[in-house]
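# nightly structure sweep
# worker-07 picked up a monomer target from the shared queue
# config: single-sequence mode, recycle default, output format = structure tokens
# input follows
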Amino acid sequence: MSAEATSPGVHGRRRGLPRIDLRRLGRAALLGPASRDRLPDAIGHVADAHRAHFPDADLSVLRRAYVLAEASHRGQYRKSGEPYITHPLAVTLILAELGAETTTLTAAILHDTVEDTDVTLDQVGREFGKEVRYLVDGVTKLEKVDYGAAAEPETFRKMLVATGNDVRVMSIKLADRLHNMRTLGVMRPEKQERIAKVTRDVLVPLAERLGVQAIKSELEDLVFAILCREDAARTRALISENASAGDALSATADALGRVLREAGISAEVLVRPRHLVSVHRSRLKRGELRGTDFGRLLVLVSEDADCYGVLGELHTCFTPVISEFKDFVAAPKFNLYQSLHTAVVGPDGAVVEVLIRTHQMHKVAEAGVVALGNPYASAPGANESTEGEGEGAADPTRPGWLSRLLEWQQSAPDPDTFWTTLRADLAQDRELTVFRAEGGMLGLPAGATCVDAAYAQHGEAAHRCLGARVNGRLVALGTVLKDGDTVQILLAHDTSSGPSPEWLEHARTPAARIAITGWLAAHPDAAALPDAAPRPPAVLSAGPRGPVGVVSDLPDAPVRLAGCCTPVPPDEITAFQVRGGTVTVHRTECPAVRRMTLKRTPVPVSWSAGDTADCHVTLRAESFGRPRLMADLTEAMSTAGAAIISATVEPPIRQRVRHTYTVQLPDAALLPGLMRAMRDVPGVYDVSRAQQPAEA
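# output follows
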């Protein structure tokens, strides 16, 4: 099914394909089932389309499904006056044309039986198996009697959860919505607009993410015709006025075909008209349109390597527009799409866009996950009794958006929150992949920041996030990530730490926004601290003041603590006698000890038994720059019982700030608590004892 070769004048139907006569199908449906040895006439179109993709398919199950659906819906009519059975038949035909396998078609025929007739899910399961039962259940709406105004969002939630285990659920829903949109003209204008808006906000993005471009493009045209009637009419008139636009493209296609034949490359070159919305967007972007702007050239080859062969010949024999080149073969889109995009200057000087792909790529580009058949059939341990209902079934598309959606919807129990957040999430139409420093990947929407990566990786533990490293460099949490970045999230040790309200400005994913909003709602006092998360005050008792005692083997020599490493009890210490006879005491791991050992003899020293009072220590804090950081640090140190003797703050480098503090503690035993209190200050990711060069 072609996504862009549509006739704008007929709601986006493809040129060259005869419209199915739904009234004739309805009359055939009313005649009842055919004899046992052949299919009912009413599903002959479905059988033909299915056999085109699966020549050896067993159609007996489709016959049985049709018999049940026709008998169940007999006597029911659509608002158009057609027998209701015409709707499930049309939905099934759409999927059959896209290449859906037999199980999906069976469920499509039955998709409204449980919702609108007396048929039960158990009956469907007994007759057609657990897979079909699961698919039918997934697309069955929830009753308004039970859910009221929340019925629609909760139905979509149920459907998306089911899609998480089997993407074929959403394939049936998309085909169902497409046929309903094709026949929406019998509805009241206000109801048309309501359905069209939901289709635009939810179903079109879902079709894009599942790669079903054929359905997505036609849905876009149908929505456009309802919500933007004047623009749609203007665009249709523009297409009609340029009915001969394809001639310019055909000339370039013929020239390209000759070039490829001479190069020995077997390829099919087609003119691919743009669909209604695509022409409208081109007009807004480029202003006045030329003939070649109403379509593209599509080149289909057999092998991946031939794609690049065609590209080479194209760029050699025509003038390429380099800025228009995109390689989605080597780097597929998140929705399975693969193709080479380029543009060249044609013989008449007009720019022609060209798509190059294999036949298989083209099938997937048009049908997306529908073209995968049963994507779970080859999964380890998969069988008829478990397929479609398995826990944690692998996402057959590029991992990311579906898993994220399933996770955050669990944190949005309120239907309004879910519905609003779903629309916002689906509005993010591009994906990127980042790599975790610890190994593994994260799928995120384009524009995601380190805040989003933190919550995607750690969940609610990301409340303790202090900062991040991107590609080995320290960055602020608001840093926007790029495809292929390596991200390491830095977390505080204090489990009571929480996010700042400012994080909401950087959060792009629903999971991050819902988690942050929930934490702030549970901790209303946090809103009063715009630059810092709340932290419990560290109340530590102060001991008696006095000099720290060091016992030396040179009792008459004066003793001092080295300023380079500021040792305190119970540090392991080493001492050396320096100029003037003073014994200088260092921490054993101090860098100065190794140098001094080469030319001086260590002096045996030890701490006085039980004496840990009144010590000086130098601490170094590494942090990300932010307002009020120094004020918060000094407040935390004062609360911990430390008196600041001196402080230095180095100029920030790449948003990284280094603070050095020399403090006096009433008791050396308070040092670990002081360092913990400093680490708990939001923005501080490391606190260490200073080790500076010392004179020998």
